[in-house]
Amino acid sequence: MFSFTGISVTELCDAWSLMLAAGEDPGFVAGLLAQVWLWVKVAIGIGLVIFVHELGHFLAAKFFGVKCEKFYVGFDVPIQLGPIKLPRTLGKFQYGETEYGIGILPLGGYVKMLGQDDDPRNAEKEAERIKVDGDDEATEPQFDPRSYPAKPVWQRMIIISAGVIVNVITGILFAAMAYGFGVPYTPAVVGGVTPGGAAWTAGVRPGGEVVAVADLRSEDQLHFNEMKLEIMEQSFDDPDQAVGVQIRYGDDVNEYKLVPQPYPDDPDMRMIGISNASSAQLMPGQSVYPGSVAADVIDDDLAGATVVAIDGQAVDSESIAPATLIDQLLLRRADQDVKLTLQPVGDDSPRDVVLAPQPMRGVGVSFRPGPITAVRKDSPAEKAGVKVGDVITAVDGNENVDAYDLVLRSSLDSVIETPISLTVVRVQGAAEETLEFELQADADAAGLSPISPAASDIASGSLGIAFRPRPFVASADQTDADEQLKPGDELKEVRVQWADGKVPESVQQQLSDEALLRLTEGWEFGSPSSLNSFVTLVQWLPEGTRFQAFAKTAQDSRVIETELVVGPTDLFWHERGLVFQPTAGVQRAHGIASAFQLGLREGGRRLKDVFGFLGLLVQGKVKAKYVGGPIRIVQMAGAQAEQGISKQLLFLTMLSMNLAILNFLPIPALDGGHMMFLTAELIRGKRVDEQLEMKLTLAGVLAILALMIFVFANDIIQSS
Hints:
By secondary structure, the chain is of the alpha+beta class. The protein is built from 19 helices and 36 strands. The strands form 13 sheets. Strands 1-7-2-6-5 form a 5-stranded mixed β-sheet. A 4-stranded antiparallel β-sheet has the order 20-19-21-22. It has a 4-stranded antiparallel β-sheet with strand order 31-30-32-33. Strand 5 and strand 6 form a beta hairpin.
């Protein structure tokens, strides 16, 4: 019985040559062996899912007396690459009447039953092979009693559906085992809210625990990834539909209706603007960012230490979002020294360190704010009458408005007590009106993060306004540049000029390969989040780093080339280089009944996910780039296997449910296609015309091959 999985091996390597290249480097050899063992685990896991599917067909067929001639994981098809002819199998053996083996093509598996062949070219010959003569010449030829076609329709239905049923059962068992071991997860806790996002606008505060979202109801251990997946599925179905979210703060549960907003650089994906929480423990491997003020005072002895107090205020490390208080106070006191009390690992004596302010680095250019994109609920701005679409033209009478200066300064304790005068221009139809508002900052909301590199907007929590900084020059200070930027000029692209042509080691440690590539080949300011990402990235570049810059002049729209240099500004950055461990939990079943219950829940969710995704795909609501094929499946399997046995088992649950549903689609040559023909036979009382069935099966095989080509190509494109 043919089964389709869409699974393949992505890469073959010459292990012998790698071993020779390793020389006597034990670290390389250990790493190589670890990688080999990882891929062995991946192969075993994926192979197990295919094996149990085919085992279901095999056992059901044997139970009803059908002769099974072959049982294969993978397909034993002839493959020839030029003059090289590959073996059909990786291994096989005969036991009784059945040949067992592993095929060379790892795209599924099959059980070959007497009288059944999914290859339309062999179907007619196979049908002739199982015919036996009757007792006399008047009797019609009969089928071999041990052949598949000789069995009643209801028995053939059970044989066909057995693979899917076993996949569902084993998928649930995989999940039950995972929860028996204990599943590590990131709790759905509000660690922060994205500036200007749906949660930020609705007044969601950090430190709450999400207990329900959309169709996921009342869970004490809701996983952050489950929450994200539910929001994504809802937004694919109806992007403008508000998602119901319940967040618990202490004994109170607040309900919100949040309309997911597009990711800045991927409008097809939606988010409600909630980020996960961090613990109060510094990362043992990298507790600080190189070049930060934290790196000046936190040495190796404090790696992995826990912050127990900040400026004498105790930090509850047992709370659901311990780092929230630390982040908020560091932001509100960004212009002041801050004392941290740290509890070193394995040491009973706390140590105090003082973090100096982290000067904000810039490139000699300040940027203008765009129109207001969001006004936070119950904020000073909302109460005063500020509206979305208003354009800020002056702050405290100063018309030279710096977008980043506004959001960073308005969060400082030293500024919050003083009312801020905001002048805006409001356009209503053809009319334009200038309005002035006096806002008294809200100290309780001042600790909300003003800037996120992944967001398009920046925000002042204390004032309750969010807007998109634009790459238009508000002011410029370029003492060395031949071409000077002027207010109103639009920055289009920058390219880094590393000193001596080498990337500093500290920068290599901090930045991703993608970011380094964009900086080198040209960082364009076309995408919504590109300016925020660039400004954040500049904070970790050495002072004196130079950029070749291209800008369009406001006066005559010329494209000019100039130079920008990284240097200090008179502002202070809201982060000081501390790296905290993300909050993590382990969900573990309490006994067999609990494990089975969690396994059923997990299996049900994954079935729902597959059905939902297929429905959205048929309706054209999901783009092709979100369809994963064999390469992506193997990549995901490797990533999950690296995280431990529990994560790998949950991945196998997901894969089992995918395999079960995909193989039961009503496509001839798949299990669902066979069931479709059997259902027609049951209703009609006789078999579907053999020629018609053969033609439909051939069409099904061609459709599957076309699908395989598509998903392979899609995986390659998305991976490149």
